[in-house]
Amino acid sequence: MIRGCLILSLPERERVVAATLMATTFKPDLMTNDRLEAGAKGWGSLAIAVLCAANAVAEEILRGIDIKISDAEAPTIPLDDVLEKAIKAAMEAGAAPENAALIAAALCYFAGSGARAGVPMANRKLGAMARIKVGLPRGGGITLVTNKFSNRLTAYPAYKAVYEALLEKKLTKVDGAKLPPFVSGGSPYGHSVLGEDIAFPEIAYNAAKIGTEAMLRAFEGAGITPSPLWAALIGATVALEIVHPDAFLGEEYGPFGTVDSAYMAGKGAMEAAKLPPKLHIRGTDEELDTARVIGDFGLIFKDLPAFTVIGAMALNEIFAGLKEAAMIGGGFSGGPVNPPLGHLCGDAVPAIRLLMKYKGDVHKVAEEIRKYKEESFFDPEMALCAANTIARKAEEVRRGPVTRAMIIAGEPVRDAAIYRRAIKVYEMLKAGKSLEEAAKALDEERKELVEKRGSELFSKMLGKKVEIKFIELRPQARRHDPFTKKYWGFDSYVSYEITIGEKKYKIENLFAKAIPEYVLKGVGREDPDYMWALTIGSVLAQELAYIGHTVINVTVPAAVAACLGMDPKEAAKRAESGAYLTRAIPGAKYRAEEVARLAKQIYERISKVATP
Asked: Hey, which residues does 288 pair with through a beta bridge?
C-alpha cells in the first residue's frame, strides 16, 4: 500500500529521471560506442582479458597463496597454480595463449612474485613458467614487437646495434680470444673476477644501453615519438639474450646475491632511455626500483612465447598502473586523457596492490581508485564512468575483487552523472528548448570542464599560467566525404586560442595545418612555448574526441525525450545530432534508440502502477 502511494505520488520529473537512469544503465554496452561484445572475446583488445586475469591473481592472493618464486626442491610451487588460473582467465576473455602468458606473468610480477629464483637444480623464471603453462616454444627477444604508437617496431634495430658492437668487441674488455682453455663456462670465469666483476656487468650494461639507444632512434625513423619504456624493455631483453642472465655481480655492485646481470641490464637501459630511477604504483604509492623492473622484464621477455602487438598493447596498459606512465611512454589508461575502453585496464595493478594492502576490502580499494582518478584525469566523471563500464563487462566473463572494486568506484559517480543530465534535459525541454539544444548544452558543459581542468593541469606542469579556449571543433579538416562530414573524430578541424605565460597564440586547423607545418616546415619551432601550445591543444582535443567510451550525452537526452512522448527513433537521431562532440564516432544513435525505447516502457509502467 505504502509503496504504491509513493510511486503514484512521484512527480513527472522524478518518474522520467528514474526511467532514464534505469534504461541508461541496463547493460554496459548501452553506455558506450566501443565494441564491448567483441572486446569480451579479445578481438582487437585485451583490456577485459587483463581484468579477468587480475581477478584470478587477486583471488589467489586473498586466499593466502604465496605467489613468490622460490627455489624449493619441489616439482611445482604455488605460483604454478596461480599462473595457470590467470592464463585460463585471460584466455576465457579471448587472449591468445602467447598473450595470456604475457599478461599473467606481468600481473604476477607486479603482485610480488619476482622474475627469477634459484640455482641450476631449482632454477625458476617467471617468463619460462608462464610459457610452459601455455605449451608454446620460446619466442626470444628477436620476436619482440612494441605497443602500437600509431606505428610500431620489432626488436631488430636493437639486435643490429648490439651485435655490431659485439663483433667489434666493444661490449667488454674481456677478449675471449685471450682466455686460457677451460676457463669460460666454469667457476674460474663465472664465479670469479673475469665474469662477476668485469665481463657480466660490462656486457649487461653496455649491450642494454646500445640496444636502447638504437630503439629510440628507430622510433624517430618510424615517424613517431620514442617510447622510453619500450626502448628500455627491448634493450634490456637483447642484452640478456647474450650475457649470463642469472649471474651475481662483484662486491663493488653490492652484497653477494643482491645485484645481478639483469639489474645491470636494466640500469643500462634505464639510463639510456632517461627513465626516472624510481617508479610508483598508483593508489598505494609503493616505490619500485626502475632498473630492477626493466631488467626483470628483460628476463621475462626473453623466456616468453612470441606475443603479438595486441599483447604489447595490453602490457602497455598494465604499466599505466604506475604514476609515471605518461612520462615513460606507458599506457593511456592512467590519464590524464581517458582513452577508448579497449585500453582501460590500467587499474589492474593498483587494484591488486590495494586489495593486498586492505586485505580484500573492496570498498576501501574503490575509494582509493576513485581518489586517484579524480586527481589524474581531465574529466574524472567520465573516466570513472568508463572504468565502471569496462569492469561490468569484464564481470560477464569472470567476476572477482578487482572488477568489483572498479565497479564500486564508478557506480555512484556514474549514477549521479546520469541523474544530473536527466534533470537538465528535462528542465530544458519543459522550458521549450529543442532536444538538439539540450544535447548540445551537455557537450558544451564538458568542453568547458576540459578547458578548465586542462588549463589548471598544464599551468601546474609548466609553472606558468595556461588558459585555453576552443573556437572550433568540427569535422573535415581536409576530407570531403559524407562519412567524415558526420563524425568529427576521423578528420578533426580544431582551432583554439591559448595563453602560455605572457604569450598568446591562435592555432587554426591544428591537425591538418599547424602540426604538419611545425614538423615538416619548422614553423614556430624556434619558440618552445609554441610547441607546448600545439601539445596542449592536441592532448585536450583527444580528450574531447575519445568520448565514444561514454555516450550519455546522447543516450540520456534521447531517453528523457522518449519519456515525454517523442518517438524513440526520432529522439535518438535528434539527440545525436545535437551532441556535436559526443558524435565523434558512429554508434551513439543506435545505443540511444535502444535506451530511449526501454526508458519509455519503464516510464509508462511506473506511471500506470495502481494502489492495491
From this structure: 279
Is residue 246 very low, low, confident or very high in pLDDT (cuts 50, 70, 90)? confident
Cα–Cα dist 106/349, whole Å? 9
Strand ranges (E), 433-488: 466-475
Furthest-apart CA atoms within the chain: distance in Å: 100
Single-letter amino acid code for the residue at 509:
N
pLDDT in tens, 377-424: 999 999 999 999 999 999 999 999 999 999 999 999 999 999 999 999
Alpha carbons 224 and 21: distance in angstroms, whole number? 43
Query: Which has more pLDDT, 371 or 254?
Result: 371
Read off the pLDDT of each residue in 75-89 and give the average, rounded to a whole number.
96
Continuous H helices in 511-551: 515-516, 528-545
**Partners of residue 322 on adjacent β-strands:** 281
For residue 202, what is its C-alpha cell? Answer: 660490462
The answer to whether residues 428 and 438 touch, using CB atoms and an 8 Å cutoff, is yes
Where do the domains of the chain lie? 2-27+551-608, 36-139+309-432, 142-303, 439-548
Q: Which residues of 243-280 are buried (b: 16+ CB within 10 A; e: fewer)?
A: bbbbbbbbeebeeeeebbbbbbbbbbbbbbbebeeebe
DSSP 94: T
- 40 and 389 Cβ atoms separated by less than 8 Å: no
d(CA 319, CA 281): 9
Assign 3-state DSSP to the chain and report helix, strand, coil percentages, each to 5: 65, 5, 30
For Cα atoms 421, 422, 426, give the angle at the middle one, nearest 5 degrees. Answer: 120
Pairwise CA distance, residues 487 & 467, whole Å: 27
HEC-encoded secondary structure of 144-179: CECCCECECCECHHHHHHHHHHHHCCCCCCCCHHHC
pLDDT digits (tens, 9 = 90+) for 270-310: 999 999 999 999 999 999 999 999 999 999 999 999 999 99
- How far apart (Å, rounded) are the C-alpha atoms in residues 320 and 108? 16
C-alpha closest to that of 309 among 132, 152, 137: 152
How far apart are alpha carbons 134 and 368 in whole angstroms?
35
User: How many Å apart are CA 352 and CA 345, to the nearest integer?
Assistant: 12
Question: Which residue has cell 601539445?
Answer: 535
Name the β-bridge partners of 279.
288
